[in-house]
Each structure stands twice: as C-alpha cells, then as structure tokens.
Amino acid sequence: MATKKQDTSSRIADNKKAAYNYFFEERFEAGMVLEGWEVKSLREGKVQLTDGYVVIRDGELFVIGCQINPLKSASTHINPDSVRTKKLLLHKEQIRRLVGKVEQKGYTLVPLNLHWKAGKVKCEIALAKGKAEHDKRDTIKDREGKREVERAMKSRHR
C-alpha cells in the first residue's frame, strides 16, 4: 500500500538523511501510539527523526531513536522521556510481509516523515536497502548537477 505525497502543511518532520543513506523499495503509512505531551510537542515541531529506525518485536513495529522534546510547559505529574520507544500501528498482513523482507540480507525499516492525517499523527516508513559509498557519491553528484542546471536556467532568464 504505497502512500501519496503529502502537502507540506501537514508535514511535521522529515528524515532527510534517509534518502542519502538508503534506496527505498516500498513505503507504508503507519499510525503512532503517542502520549499527550508528545502530541503537543509535535504541534510545536519539536521532533527529530534523523537517528530513528524501526524494529520488529513480537510481531509489532516500534520506532527507536525518534526524539520528541518535551515543552517547557509540560505537565508536572508526568516525567517526559524524549527518546521513548513508540509503537507503530499497521495491519497484521503488512507486518508479516515486512518481517519476511527485513529478514533478507541488507533490508531495514526506516522512518521517512511524520505528518498529520485526519487529526492523527502518521509515520511514513520505508523498506530500505543501504547504499554503498559509491552510491552515496553518485547521489551527491546528481544533486550538484541539478543545482548547476537550475542556476544556469535562472541566470539565463534574467
């Protein structure tokens, strides 16, 4: 079940390092189990996904390393843990398929972004294969080539 591109207004956070480090095979949209203070922090944009990864334990998906920083005005009766392991919600058949794929050599699950959908926080995850060093260099070369073309087009239109 591939996801469509979200509009930028519903985006909370992106994992920009993921596209540099991995090739994406498949994308999935999963719900997240969050506490109240985490949702409030997400509304303020106090989240970091770059060090996050997804693991499968006992047939359930969890995001580890996704840091949600608590607000200063967080409730006094809770102790917020910014790097708490967060559960992801997917259909059982999707999880079973992912388990089979992740067990293959070189595949992993990576969180790509967090976004709002119908008032709920969703996490887009991808089944990914790690890039070799020469693939990363190719990515940089392509990106710089596109920048040069854009600069040339921009200066030509002046």
Automatic annotation (TrEMBL):
It is found in: Cytoplasm. SUPFAM superfamilies: Small protein B (SmpB). InterPro entries: SmpB (IPR023620), SsrA-bd_prot (IPR000037), SsrA-bd_prot_CS (IPR020081). Residues 134-158 are annotated as: Disordered. Keywords: Cytoplasm, RNA-binding. Belongs to the SmpB family. Required for rescue of stalled ribosomes mediated by trans-translation. Binds to transfer-messenger RNA (tmRNA), required for stable association of tmRNA with ribosomes. tmRNA and SmpB together mimic tRNA shape, replacing the anticodon stem-loop with SmpB. tmRNA is encoded by the ssrA gene; the 2 termini fold to resemble tRNA(Ala) and it encodes a 'tag peptide', a short internal open reading frame. During trans-translation Ala-aminoacylated tmRNA acts like a tRNA, entering the A-site of stalled ribosomes, displacing the stalled mRNA. This is SsrA-binding protein. It comes from Variovorax soli.
